[in-house]
Amino acid sequence: xxxxxxxxxxxxxxxxAVELIARDGFDGVRIADVARQAGVSTALVHYHFTHRAQLxxxxxxxxxxxxxxxxxxxxxxxxxxxxxxxxxxxxxFALPFTDDDVREARxxxxxxxxxxGSPELAEALARLNRRTEQPVADAVAAGLAEGIFHDCVPAxxxxxxxALLAGLSVRLTAHDPGLDLAGVRELAGRQLSRLVGYAGVLxxxxxxxxxxxxxxxxxxxxxxxxxxxxxxxxxxxxxxxxxxxxxxxxxxxxxxxxxxxxAAVGRRRRAVRRPxxxx
Length: 279
Prior knowledge:
Layout (H helix, E strand, L loop, with lengths): L2 H22 L6 H8 L3 H7 L3 H27 L4 H12 L4 H17 L3 H28 L7 H20 L7 H16 L10 H4 L15 E4 L22 E4 L24
Antiparallel strand pairs: 1-2
Helix pairs in contact: 1-2, 1-4, 1-6, 2-3, 4-6, 5-7, 6-7, 7-8, 8-9
């Protein structure tokens, strides 16, 4: 087997692990299930991952890497320059907009639920937390240099932002009836603006530009297990106006599909842990 084929098969194994762990919970997934889903032998899975805990942490790292690549591509495509726009985009990165985001959130929940009893998993969780906080700290530092943010410590803002966005994401994925995506986005924007001393409203992209298009496979439910998050507001702040909202627009139906590629996203995203037998 050449190097390219090894990388391809390893990627397929990680894709399968992301999907199955998010759907069934870590305790509900066997190595044999992952191998079957990936179309490889059980021996090959054991070759790349010596134990199941390693498979969990590397699956989450793999999912996060894909989300970061999507974020970078998106920022480049729309020319989002400036620290305030970067911070707004990072808020979106952390919220559950797509199937990928929801799957990644569930992986975070699995890792967090086990980290307290495992030094190895606790170390992996701390490493991933630092990785997701760093872009926020960098954006805040850039805003201080640009003179648009004031009187704040980048690392502290990043830690507070992660805690805020993670908590809001938990409530969204748990279908809290008092919250919707657009409202959560605006709330996070207001609170982070205060933390960084930003005068005005963070320049979010229009919500319609952030949501995946219907029918693309990233935000449509499948017949297996629909998991919809509905928003009652369709637009959010821009750099020149405050946000406006209308009711009854569906943000996205999230499914635990067997074919979709998470947001995460994002991002960091956490979700309420389901019982061990099923996410």
